[in-house]
Design goal:
Helix content: 25-40%
Radius of gyration: 15 Å
CATH class: Mainly Beta
CATH architecture: Roll
Order of helices and strands: HEEEEHEEHHE
CATH superfamily: Electron Transport, Fmn-binding Protein, Chain A
CATH topology: Pnp Oxidase, Chain A
Number of strands: 7
Number of domains: 1
Number of helices: 4
Shape: globular
Length: 144
């Protein structure tokens, strides 16, 4: 995993710009990297916030992991989606609304085991903290 930049907000703004600029480029956004943009509504402010993040395909599900690189607290976007689970997902050239659902129980445990088998750095993140790192499924909403 690369080092976390000192100015994460500036880094994320640049990543969002690059993602959106490369939508129609050969190889797709970010040249095939497993990256999506997740737009949540602020739990306290009500303002829309966009966060670039890695995603994992798990069968028909699209998963994001609230590891925050093993930080002691959940990332802000996680609290936002708990308060307002309707989010916007930008992946590839596709943009859609989704409902964010935190996995729980056996589903979370079985999914987590598959995730750390394929991406062992998430186990390293979990080892740094006492909190359980949330796994969130982004379920596409049907247009109304």
């Amino acid at each position: 995993m690369p080092d976390i930049p000192s100015d994460i907000k500036a880094f994320n703004r640049q990543l969002i710009e690059e993602f959106r600029a490369s939508r129609n480029a050969p190889g797709g956004p970010m040249n095939g990297r497993q990256l999506l943009l997740l737009t949540t509504t602020g739990a306290k402010t009500g303002q829309r916030r966009t966060t670039p993040m890695m995603y994992i395909r798990d069968g028909d599900r699209l998963l994001v992991i609230a590891s925050d690189s093993g930080a002691p607290a959940h990332p802000a976007w996680y609290y936002n989606l708990l308060a307002h689970p309707v989010v916007t997902v930008e992946i590839g050239a596709d943009t859609y609304d989704a409902t964010a659902v935190a996995l729980a129980g056996a589903d979370r445990e079985e999914t987590w085991a598959r995730i750390i088998e394929k991406y062992p750095f998430f186990a390293d993140h979990q080892a740094k903290v006492t909190r359980q790192i949330p796994v969130i499924s982004l379920e596409r909403r049907e247009p109304q």
